[in-house]
Amino acid sequence: MAKKITGRKLNEEFGVGAKHALYRKDGGWYHLLKRFPAALFDANGYVIFETKNDYLKSKHLQITQALHVAQGISSMPGYVRVKS
Q1: Which residues pair with 47 in a beta bridge?
Q2: How do residues 39-66 score in pLDDT, each as one tens digit?
Q3: Which residue, among 43, 30, 40, 52, has the nearest Cα to 76 in the 3D structure?
Q4: 2-35: per-residue pLDDT in tens?
Q5: What is the Cα gyration radius of the chain?
Q6: Does 1 reside within a domain?
Q7: Dist. CA 82–CA 14, nearest whole Å
Q8: Is residue 62 one of the residues assigned to a domain?
Q9: How far apart are alpha carbons 69 and 58 in whole angstroms?
Q10: How many CB atoms lie within 10 A of CB 34?
Q11: Structural domains in the chain (count)
Q12: Cβ atoms of residues 43 and 24 within 8 Å
C-alpha cells in the first residue's frame, strides 16, 4: 500500500517550517489556510505565504468557501520546485 501524501509530511520532508500546510496533487484546489506562515504543496513543489495578509492579497488565489488557484500553484511567483 502506498503512503498517503499530506501537506504536513511534505512540510517536514522539505523543511519548509509552515504552521499550516496543505497538499493537492494538481495544485488547483485546497481548503482554506488558517495558520501562518502557511504553504500549499502540489506534486512537484510548493509556495509559501509568510503572513495572512500575503495570502489574502495574492492575485493568483480565488478565496471563497474553498481556495482555487486557476493555473495551479506552479504558475505562481515564488513557487519552489522540489521534484522534476
Answers
A1: 40
A2: 999 999 999 999 999 999 999 999 999 9
A3: 40
A4: 679 999 999 999 999 999 999 999 999 999 999 9
A5: 12
A6: no
A7: 8
A8: yes
A9: 10
A10: 11
A11: 1
A12: no
User: What share of residues in the chain are helix, strand, coil (percent, to 5)?
Assistant: 20, 25, 55
Is 90 exceeded by the pLDDT of residue 80?
yes
CA separation for the pair 43, 59 (Å, rounded): 22
Best CA proximity match to 20, nearest among 63, 43, 52? 52
How many angstroms separate the Cα of 63 from the Cα of each of 20, 28, 31, 68, 77? Answer: 16, 12, 9, 7, 18
Predicted model pTM? 0.94
Tell me which residue range forms the domain holding 70.
7-81
- Residue 32 lies inside a defined structural domain of this protein: yes
At residue 4, what is the residue type?
A: K
pLDDT value, residue 28: 95
Closest among 50, 55, 41 to 19, alpha carbons compared: 50
